Amino acid sequence: MTQRFTGGCQCGAVRFRVTRLGQAAICHCRMCQKAFGNYFAPLVMVDDVEWTRGAPTFFRSSNRARRGFCANCGTPLCYLEDSGSMELAGGAFDDPDVAPPTVQYVLKDKLALFDMLGDVPHQPHVEKETAFNATVVGYQHPDHDTDDWQPTSSA
C-alpha cells in the first residue's frame, strides 16, 4: 500500500495529498519570511501533489516563482518554481512531523533571535489561560481528510 501524506489550509477550502516526500528545509530568505508572515518558511519538496479539494491561488513573488495560498483563509500552501519544482508548506501537512527539516537555506537572512528561541522562557500554566482556552471554539479544519467541509468565515 502506498503511503499518503495529506494536508491543507486552516479553513479546509484547499486540501492536498502526496505519496512521496523529498527534502524538507527551512528557508530564511526575506521573501519566505514575508510570504509566511514568520521568521522562516518550512518547505517540503514534492513531485506528485494532488489537490483533493479546491486549489491554491497564486501570487508571483519573483521572476522565478509563484507562491500558492488559500484565497479564503490566507494559509501559505506552496512554492512553485517556473521549472515546475514544487515545495509544500511543512506546517500545512496534517502531521507536520512527517517531514522534519534536514537543511537550512539563506542563512544570511536568518534573524538573530532564531538562535535564542530555545532560551526564551516558557509561560507558566495559569488558571486565567485555562479558563480562556475552555471558552475557545475552533473553526479550523481538522487534521484529516473529510468528505465535505464548509469553511467558516467570520468578520
What does this structure look like?
- By secondary structure, the chain is mainly beta.
- It has a single domain (5-115), classed as Metal Binding Protein, Guanine Nucleotide Exchange Factor, Chain A (Beta Complex), CATH 2.170.150.70.
- It has two helices and ten strands; from the N terminus they run βββαβββββββα.
- The protein has a seven-stranded mixed β-sheet with strand order 6-7-8-9-4-3-10. A three-stranded antiparallel β-sheet has the order 1-2-5, with no helix packed on it.
- The longest helix is centred in the last third of the chain and has 8 residues, at 127-134.
Quote the beta fraction: 25-35%
Distance between the termini: 43 Å
Q: What best-fitting shape do the alpha-carbon axes yield?
A: globular
Estimated helix fraction? under 10%
Q: Can you summarize the main beta sheet?
A: 7 strands, mixed
What is the strand and helix layout of this fold?
Blueprint (H helix, E strand, L loop, with lengths): L4 E4 L6 E4 L5 E4 L2 H7 L4 E6 L3 E4 L3 E4 L4 E5 L6 E6 L4 E4 L13 E3 L21 H8 L21
Parallel strand pairs: 3-10
Antiparallel strand pairs: 1-2, 2-5, 3-4, 4-9, 6-7, 7-8, 8-9
In a few lines, what is going on in this structure?
This protein is mainly beta and 155 residues long.
